[in-house]
## 1
Amino acid sequence: MIDRTKQHTALGFTLVELLVVIAVIALLAVLMLPTLSSFSRVTNRTTCANNLKRIGESITLFSAGDPGGQRALVNPARWPTQLSEFVGDGGVFICPEGDSELQTAESVPLPDLVSIHVTTTNYDLELIEGPYVAKVSDEQFRAITFQTGKRINAPAYDAGADPTVFWYLLEDVPFERGDLDYDIGIKVTENGDGTVTLSVKQITGAGYDFNLVDKTDNRKILVRKYEMDGSADHEVIVGEGGGGLASYGMNAAFQSILDDPDKIMVMDYAWFVARTTHDWSGEKLKSSIPGIPIFARHHGQINVLFTDGSVRLKRPDEVNPADPDVQRTLWNE
């Protein structure tokens, strides 16, 4: 008589053997995760450094762009807008390890989308196309966001490759003029289950508070605040005085230190104007790790573009303007 138990064992895996193989594979995957994560961070750090190098090159091109021979000066309060035509890709202004570009609200039922309003102390706009609200596809949005400081005459909506993702662009305070400078973008992503997720992006520094409100029950979906001094109480990186979104900051003293070969020009930062008056240990900039500000994205370090065109990875204490010597040596004239 044939022993079928032995025959089965000889021809295939037993349950115990199969579980051992699965356990070994799972263990190897767990052991590899830190390596993969570390590789990803190194890649992001390199991408960030390359972004800063391209920004430095674009500054050189912009400065030499005056045909009359007079040097053109980059305005620290509008530098992403001014440099966009030389960079060609708005993604260069975003550090891959930076804070999220968008602040995401909760999902809402698709039929209730018309009940969502953007409100401030000055106005109330609902998410439908109108004189101060333009609907554009994701491709259209990316094409126009970094073109100019003024987003004049948004194109007619074209769904493009993915009609499940689109934007509403909102003008800040309605007034009668032809060129609308859209200040807020609401990204709508259809989830395929009858709901949409809304994401808010403040395109320019309009200097006001705004809320995303569901008017059916007057419930605030998302509260956002932008303060006139450039500080923000949310993680979304916003602009000062107009200009595009960026997760890098230009030294506010840029125009006066341009000819000094070893000054901070642009760096990983929370806002796109880096001021020596900012308190890196204050509530607005401190992270959950003591002594490490929120913009120290690369293992607690900061990529810095210097006026000589070099990009160097620095510890926060090496470039912190709270140190008078650092401020004098690296930040100011």
## 2
Amino acid sequence: MKTLFTATAAVALLATAAPASAKIANGTTVSDMIVTDSNGKQHKLSDFKGNRVVLEWTNDGCPYVQKHYDTNNMQNLQKEATLGSDTVWLSVISSAPGKQGYVSGEGANALTTSRDAAPSAVVLDPSGDMGQAFAAKTTPHMYIIDEAGTLVYQGAIDDNSSARKSTVPGAKNYVRAALADLDAGQPVAIADTAPYGCSVKYSS
């Protein structure tokens, strides 16, 4: 029987090979973990094997996140990625209670509705276990896992690190490009970039 790991156990597993919060190398098979979404439903990452998974770390109070949502850049990307495909998009909130961006499940659902966002689910990670397992550093911080469960992209959403909304149209969107490479059956050409944005608001 396949062993299932909780998010906390996944952190411990990764720590056997590297310090806690160390970056996961591209080409690594992502460790299984159980996460809980804004509706209280649990998901195992292994359940998505056979699907691509996009992970988006988010914090609605962060101006860099606002840049991409206020221009509908993030919502359009979510819809493009998931429409008529087997791609799963998980927006992850790792803000700790009392920190910027922390919301309840009800609050997360209200944000999704008000922004016309289209993630497959919003994962609540107030303990920071999932964020630490992936070494998520900023909001946004983006990851793509392929159908085999292998990490194939990590980093920024695009190549313009300004918080100005006017920079979105001219930026190269790394996530869109990576998904296009996968659609074409090619390796991701730009697979690792420096994330930019607000720091993830972990408890410590």
